[in-house]
Amino acid sequence: MKKMLCLAAVALIAAGCHKQTNQPINYNVDKFYDLEVLRYDVPDFQSLSLQQKKLVYYLTEAALQGRDILYDQNCKYNLAIRRALESIYVNYPDKQDPQYLLMEKYLKRVWFSNGIHHHYNEDKFLPEFTEDWFRSAWQYVDSATTQLYGHCLNNLVPVIFDPNILPKKVNQADGVDLLATSACNYYQGLTQNEAEAWYAAHKDNSDEPLWIGLNAQLVKDEQGNIVERTYKVGGLYGPALEKVVYWLEKAKEVAETDRQKEVIEKLIEYNRTGNLKTFNEYAIAWVQDLDSRVDFINGFTEVYGDPLGITGAWEAMVNFKNIEATKRTEILAQNTQWFEDNSPTAKEYKKEQVKGVSAKVINAAILGGDSYPSTPIGINLPNANWIRKEYGSKSVTIQNITDAYDKAAQGNGFNEEFMLSDNEIQMSRKYGAITDNCHTDLHECLGHGSGKLLPGVTKDDLKEHGSTIEEARADLFGLYYIADPKMVELGIMPDKEAYKAEYYRQMMNGAMTQLVRIELGKDLEEAHMRNRQLIANWVLAHVNPEAPEVEIVAIPVAKEKNSHDTPAELKHYMRVNDYEGLRNLYGQLLAIIQQVTSTGDYAMAKQLVETYAVKIDPVLHREMLARYERLNLAPYKGFVNPVYTPVTDKEGNITDIRIDFTEGYAEQHLRYSRDYSPLPTWN
Ligand code: ZN
Description:
Blueprint: E1 2-3, E2 28-32, E3 35-39, H1 50-64, H2 67-74, H3 78-91, H4 98-113, H5 131-137, H6 143-149, H7 152-161, E4 187-188, H8 192-202, E5 216-220, E6 226-230, H9 238-253, H10 258-273, H11 276-288, E7 294-300, E8 314-321, H12 323-334, H13 336-342, E9 357-369, E10 378-381, H14 385-391, E11 393-398, H15 399-409, H16 414-418, H17 422-447, H18 466-482, H19 485-489, H20 499-511, H21 527-541, E12 550-558, E13 568-576, H22 579-599, H23 602-613, H24 618-631, E14 636-640, E15 643-648, E16 654-660, H25 665-675
Parallel strand pairs: 3-14, 4-5, 9-11
Antiparallel strand pairs: 1-10, 2-3, 5-6, 7-8, 8-9, 10-11, 12-13, 15-16
Helix pairs in contact: 1-9, 3-4, 9-10, 10-11, 12-17, 17-18, 17-20, 18-21, 18-22, 20-21, 21-23
The chain binds zinc ion.
Zinc ion (ZN) binds near residues 443 and 474.
């Protein structure tokens, strides 16, 4: 599970010092459409030992080798389109041709989304260059590539230009076949009913169940049999996984501990065999590897990209512990049982004994697959409930990423435009960074790990609403506790006022400002966005009508400062009248959401999501978009990675790993496509 960034970025640099690298880092790299590319620092990399640096380096290579896999998982035409466009991008002679420049913009978007569908709202985006131009530019696709593609120009044109073909990557709308209406490549040739029946028939009901379907495409073959094409060396995506294994083998030799070595060995074995029992062993070893400073994710992990929520998207991240900031989460982890016992959920849904929640603050060293360029700010794994129950889970807050967001957002005018008054702006400036990080800590290390399912209930019972409900549960757990005096007592929150910054932001973002990411007329689709609106809109619907704890107010504001001629514009703002009361409402909803989860109450989950989380008030939406547009900001951010280069002596031994922060966005993607692109175009 992952936590994505809330939109309202704070303007304060997170506390905590780090050694500056020699060159100042340029955090803002590129901007196009609704996307902005940032850079992140990797503080303390130089403080790692040579062995740890080598480990990071080998793992970053393994992280980059899977990039093609995600493109293909997102849509089976993605690799062909990316390769053709890159070829035109490099070979086309007139780099100032307006059509070429529109193609460049489109290609940047393809890179950002790992394909032709928006990385967040799942819709196919259409190019601004013309079909005629594309057909004429096809001659610049290099011959090796065109031969590889066969007749692909005519296949690709409708996929790129026709809005009715493959319009959505992951469809979650009710009442239609989710597989037929989703462009992603997890299923071929079968209906939703057939896939669901297959999964039901193959479900593992043992105490230590295999996650059937996690690492395979499900297809109906020519004889009409439903078979799995397993992602493994020698299987589907074999050429990429072979390279991953090659670098994991090197990483294994410089593992920090025996436990970590075992983790890497298990992952290698799993990549070779596709055996899900080995995957469980790997996940168990991974969650227990707590002593290593360097850690990583590499493989088929989160299931948000599969409309049925079963198959994992390929994802990678290499990271190492931020020792100073980790003290914060260690305190939380030591008090896990207290938080469980005192939460407002019903006793029968609490864990009697919460097991080994480990939590740390990390710095990302590289982002790959589904974590690149857009990346979560917190991760909690593994996803298998029985492993979480028996062995606990590992939870991380990715501090250098949130720091980069903060730095890039300084003084961008967002809070000034959308917050009610100077009071809220000041509060955010003073407490925003600490409360944001702290909410992520609580969400990841306590929220997801809290509560229990009643006997016979599984996480699949909530079906397509499972992710939204789960994220709401973790967010509410964090919101409820961030205001608890215990947090001040533990020394995590600076004082009893600080939580208000996070409360204000959650309400403002959940009900209002996150809408700037959505096109007018569309519904909310993504689980984290749905979760945030569910919470905010449920709260607004359950306030005390006599004296609302929180409300949306309309205030006339002069269009231009010091101008008496222009008429005032009516703007909507979130106003919190009673923060304690708001906490109470969060607590009530947490109890409800926990009950839905613990009992597997699909009907209630559906009702909550459909009532509060999906539909958008068009008037408010239009206003948010208009106000946001005037700020000239991009609502979605992603990153370029640093470049790691080994320094070797005369004998070829690695003596150091150099880190560089100057590579540009297009430069990086072209290099990745050249050096890390092992898959054939059609898989
Ligand atoms: Zn989460």
